[in-house]
């Protein structure tokens, strides 16, 4: 559900109280949000976090000022729900360290291809999700890729890697 005219129309209708439109909007975003949340929180918590996010989307949809930004707005809500869940787990001692989170990320579903990532960057959805400028997102992505390449090169050179 990108910012197409049809998806914008569904969002506007849902904002006006159309229950069928709300159901359509939530169904359209459910699978992408599940794919996004699962690697963050792990498979056992995915359904709970997804449900929390979808309830928040439905409850606060009327506050969305720009219907074309529905998708990044929904991802931002899902991010907050996932990180709230992880904070609660950490307080209860369920996450030992960042290693557990990294293990979950490493075992996650396949990541988007380079083409899909470029589409996201081109459409500025990442910047809207993170509430950062597009230039900042691109520079952080470049920095992250460079750090990953250095880490992989060091690991390859290490006799223990």
Descriptive overview:
By secondary structure, this protein is mostly helical. The chain has a domain at 5-108: RNA polymerase sigma factor, region 2, helix turn helix motif (Rna Polymerase Sigma Factor, Chain: A). The protein has eight helices and no strands. Residues 106-110 have low confidence and may be disordered.
Task: Kindly list the characteristics that best describe this protein.
Rna Polymerase Sigma Factor, Chain: A; mainly alpha; 161 residues; globular
Describe the structure concisely.
This protein is 75% helix and 0% strand. The protein has 161 residues and is mostly helical. Helix 2 (19-41) packs across helix 4.
What's the helix and strand layout?
Layout: H1 5-15, H2 19-41, H3 46-60, H4 70-92, H5 98-106, H6 114-122, H7 125-130, H8 134-157
Largest sheet: none
Beta-strand content estimate: under 5%
Task: Give me the count of strands.
Answer: 0
- Kindly identify the CATH topology of the domain at 5-108: Rna Polymerase Sigma Factor, Chain: A
| Spatial gap, N to C terminus | 42 Å
Number of helices: 8
CATH top level label of the domain at 5-108: Mainly Alpha
- Please give the share of residues in helix: over 70%
């Amino acid at each position: 559900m990108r910012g197409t005219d049809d998806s914008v129309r569904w969002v506007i209708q849902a904002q006006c109280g159309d229950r069928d439109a709300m159901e359509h909007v939530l169904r359209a975003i459910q699978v992408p949000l599940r794919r996004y949340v699962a690697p963050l929180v792990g498979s056992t918590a995915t359904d709970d976090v997804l449900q929390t996010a979808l309830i928040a989307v439905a409850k606060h949809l009327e506050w969305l000022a720009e219907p074309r930004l529905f998708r990044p707005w929904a991802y931002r809500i899902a991010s907050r729900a996932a990180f709230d869940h992880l904070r609660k787990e950490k307080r209860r001692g369920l996450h030992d360290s960042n290693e557990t989170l990294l293990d979950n990320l490493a075992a996650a579903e396949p990541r988007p291809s380079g083409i899909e990532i470029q589409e996201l960057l081109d459409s500025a959805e990442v910047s809207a999700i993170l509430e950062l400028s597009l230039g900042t997102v691109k520079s952080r992505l470049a920095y992250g890729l460079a750090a990953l390449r250095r880490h992989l090169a060091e690991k390859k050179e290490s006799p223990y890697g």
